[in-house]
Amino acid sequence: MFRNVLQDIIKMPYYKNYTAVSGTIHNISNHEGAIEDILKRNGFSEIEKTKDCLKKNKELWIKQPDICSIPINSFISQPFGTHENPDFLVRVGQDRLIPIEAKSSEDFKPLYNSGGIKPNYIYVFSSKKANSTTIYKGSDIISFEAYKVIEELIREQKKLEIAANEKLKKLDVYHRGISYYTRPMIGQSGDKTFTNYFTHEHREKCEQNVLDLFQ
After folding, report:
1. What is the pTM of this model?
2. CA–CA distance, 65 with 35 (Å, rounded to integer)
3. Which residues contact residue 119 at a Cβ distance below 8 angstroms, ignoring those fewer than 6 apart?
4. 3-state secondary structure of 16
5. CA–CA–CA angle 128, 150, 166 (5° rounding)
C-alpha cells in the first residue's frame, strides 16, 4: 500500500511549501497538502497528534516502531511543529514507522536548514523549474561519515556560540541583550552533475531504492 503512495508522489507536479501554486490535484494549495491527499487516497488515515508524540521520543519511535502510539496505516502531519522535522510520521506496519520530509524549491536542488540531512528519512522534493517531484533516502545523498562530520561541526559551533554569548552578556554596557545565534544551513555546490536532482545520474537509482523498501 505504501509503495503505491510513493509511486503517486513521484508523479506529482510542483507544489510550493505552505503556498498555493498548483491546483491540479483536487485544488490542493501546497506541497504538504498534496502528500496528505495521496496518503489518504491510498488508505492511510490522518490522526491528531498523540500526547506522547514528543520531540524527545522521535528517534526512539523511529528505531522501535512497536512502541509508537500511531496506529498502523495512519499518519501524523507536522508531528513536532512546522519548524521541526519530519513533516510526516507514517506507520506502515507493526515494525515500520516512516519519517517523511517534504522539500520544495524553485531550483533543481533543495536547501537543508537546521534539520540537516537525516540518513533514515525519506525525502520528497518538488522543483518549480522541473515542475516535477523526486524521492530519495537521506542515506543515498550523504554518507554516514559525512553526516557525522556535519553533526560534529554543529556541536563545536554550539560550544563557541555559548562561550561568545557569555562574553556578550558581560560586555552589554547598554543593557540591550545582544546575543548571537548560529543557524546551520547545508547547501550543495558544483555544476548540474552535482546539484540537479532531476538529471542526476543517480536519480532513478535513488527513487528505486526507496520503492524497494516496500515490496
Report:
1. 0.87
2. 22
3. 137, 138, 139, 142, 144, 147
4. strand
5. 110
Nearest to 90 by CA among 28, 12, 26, 38: 38
| Helical packing angle, 2-10 and 31-41, nearest 10° | 140
197/126 Cα distance (integer angstroms) = 10
Q: Among 11-20, 30-39, 93-102, 107-116, which stretch is predicted with the lowest mean pLDDT? A: 11-20
Strand-pair partners of 137: 122
**Alpha-carbon distances, residue 179 vs 4, 115, 130, 163 (angstroms):** 48, 22, 40, 11
> Strands 74-77 and 122-127, how do they pair?
unpaired
Let me know if 175 is exposed, middle or buried by CB neighbors in 10 A (0-12, 13-18, 19+). exposed
User: Is the link from the previous residue into 79 a cis peptide, with omega within 30 of 0?
Assistant: no
d(CA 102, CA 100): 7
